[in-house]
Design a protein that fits this description.
67% helix, globular, mainly alpha, 0% strand
Length: 165
Amino acid sequence: MFPSGPVGPLLRWPARKQWRNCKWIAALGAVGISVVVWQSRIVGFDPEAIDVTELTILATIFVVPALGEELLFRWALFPRQGVRHRWLLVTLSVALFVLWHPLQAWTGLGPVWSELFLHPAFLACVAILGVTLAALRDASSSLWPPIFFHWAVVAAWKLLFGGPF
């Protein structure tokens, strides 16, 4: 039902055609998130000057949350192809991804600013992100497109839209 073997096959680099398919999925996800952000005004355009500190943060967010959360939600909790009722299991994976964010705020596991994780517009963005990441995983049969998109969204939030550091 869920992956039982090594993560290796999912870390293979997608073929060019798979990347082309992924760019459209990523674009749709980015538009969806942008619409929620624009409508709710939870963030505003506030570009950050990039220095050594920001470069360190960019490297850090590649590992956590991008790589770490993708290994959990798009590998460990993501159903294999051909599994019965797969769409329900994919939906469960996305739901757990969304729930993970307020759980960090409620338990104190998250950063000190994680109360933002309770904001309905933020959670709507996380839901769109989760669906997009699942679609990228399916379209590519790889974890790299979801990892890169997850990283890009968090990096943009922090560097361009005033997300907390």
